[in-house]
Design a protein that fits this description.
The complex is a heterodimer of chains A (about 575) and B (about 130). By secondary structure, chain A is mainly alpha-helical. Chain A has three domains: about 35 residues; about 300 residues, TIM Barrel; about 210 residues, no CATH class. Chain A has a four-stranded parallel beta sheet, covered by helices on one side. In chain A, helix 10 crosses helix 15. The longest helix of chain A is centred in the N-terminal third of the chain and has 25 residues. Chain A is globular, with a radius of gyration of 25 Å. About 0% of the residues of chain A have low confidence. Chain B has about 130 residues and is of the alpha/beta class. Chain B has one domain: Cobalamin-binding domain (Rossmann fold, 3-Layer(aba) Sandwich), CATH 3.40.50.280. The mean pLDDT of chain B is about 95. Classes of the chains: A mainly alpha (about 575), B alpha/beta (about 130).
Chain lengths: ~575, ~130
Amino acid sequence: MSQDIEKIKQKRKEWEEKVLKPALDRFWLKESPTKFYTPADVEGFDFLTDVGFPGEYPFTANTYPTSPYIPAPRRGLPGASGLVRAATYSGYGTAEDTRDYYMEMQKRGQKRGPNLAFDLPTQCGYDSDNPLVRGEIGKTGVAVDTLRDFEVIYEPFQGDLELDNIASNFTINGPCNIIVSMYFALAEKRGIPLDKLRATPQNDILKEFIARGTYIFPPRHSMRMFRDSLVFFAKHCPHVNITSVGGYHIRGAGATREQDLAFSMAILIAYLQEGVKTGLDVDSFAPRFSVNAFGGSMEFFKEIAFQRAARRMWAKILREKFGAKNERSMLLRQPAGAHMGYENCTVQRPLNNLTRSVVGAIASTLSGGLPIPMPPYDEPLGLGWSLEASQLSEDAFKILYYEANLNEVIDPLAGSYYVEHLTDEIEEAAWKELDKIEAMGGAVAAIESGYMQREIAKSAYERQRRIESGEDLVVGVNCFVGENELEVQTTRLVPHPYDPTKRERAEDRQIRNLTEVKKNRDNRAVAQLLKELKGKAEKEADNLIPHFIECAKAYVSEQEMCDVLREAFGEYQPATI
Amino acid sequence: MNEGKRIRVLIAKPGLDGHDRGAKVLALGLRDEGMETIYTGLRQTPEKIVQSAIQEDVDVVGLSCLSGAHKYLFPRVIELLKEKKAKDVLVIGGGIISPEDIPFLKEKGVSEIFGPGTSIKEIAEYIRQNVKAR
């Protein structure tokens, strides 16, 4: 082998001299605009160690032995037999508005549980009647103040779609344990045992400090909340995922590919350590870790390599750093794979985003995922704008899956000199950055000092600088914008799925709902429960979730609980950058 | 503008929206364009933003919001600036602002809205031309 490599290296020199150079000279080029990779670029490559079979350590080829999501032909939407999944991200206005939306979707055949988007006051631990959050109620998702709101949202989910038959997703981080406790309270009131519930809360608080921004408490107290959920779910809710880590938020905030991978892994390590510190065996909870969507950019091959590197790195971390024995602990479980990166959508000529998302979808499939073109092309025009855009994305998925047969092979680029080289390169750079963070004391310390925030801001600015100088090109934004270009605009013919008049009045209606709840509940019981919460919050070892469930059942509001915790834990003050 | 006095810009995030990539990039970019920039950080109330604008004696307030709450938050900042007799401050905005909302915001006193994909140079140029002499 090594002799072959020497021969190839020698041959490469000759090729560069005799073939490449004259070609470059002919076009007055100093260096080649294209690269070419050979076995010499993956010296020491060993298929069994570096790639392996799909569903086997180190999972470079794929998380599972086969694609787990086998869409039923002609039955429409991709659904996996045996897998219960939540619907697409949705929710707006008041609980009633969101309930009505789900009823409408069910009339159109939707059989999946809700994937709930919450408004920002809910995500940041404020009630709808707080004057500080005026203008925000029901805007980015549904407003949830008390259990009453969950009772209303879940009205359409009964009978065949009872809570033990559906999966729910909650995009909630800072107050995750409180919101999940409201769901648990709802289940208990309906007589459904917690061990029958399927749910995925995002519960990825550390990323909120460096991207997305819906933190409440300081990092260390937030980690205690995380520990509570890990321990409680591991013990009582075997089908509830502990966290759904989102590397793509970090990328969206401006991180480079390597920073994204290293920071996400550092965050995942911090979460694993919380579980290990409580004395739990890593194999008892790591299989309930999931990943939302890692990565995201238009750089096709690099994103494919990124996914492969991420799977391998995670597997190594679990086996080598944490001594996991169960291979299920080592799986980087994510419903989606590579994608274009939401931040690369352009508001200019928005239909081009469909083209971009299809490029991302192909990268997704070639790296072990489904060809899901995400997001819908109208993402930059405002959240969830049109059903037309969603339909186009779903059709693009079906075309790639059924017509192009993209999923008939797993990891088709395995063994490609270029892709294996890239995979190694990305993983190596991420390990280097991860080691640096570990030397600082891990993710929590790197967030407290502002290191991650500063590095991400620097990378974001660097990207902007490259766009402005023309080093990085974005079609229709910094190039191909001459007067001869046709500015293609879209017309939206299908009405917005969320009723605009309801949206307009959501704030007042939700405040009325909450006032009503606060008037009719047993306020002495509420005061007593909050007093007890204070006592428990001050005892570090206490798991607060059982008490949150009791509070939820008594219709204690989210902010009432959060305010007690704010007093006990303090509030996060961002590091200056 | 007095000759030689650097333009002072406050970049602010009103409301609860946590997406501040654009705000941070613009704060850094306008600094490199020769302006003095201050970034408020996340979760500022209109009251806090106006207080900072006055304390820091800025010429420009740049508001960034991606949550859809701009129709309440931006006009509220302008209202408070007027109350505090700081109506000469140039107010510009950005984020995810649907085109339908722009006439409303301009009527309320937002001088210009810069959407995604706008270059820093374009914003800097706009500021230089529109900042009021004080």
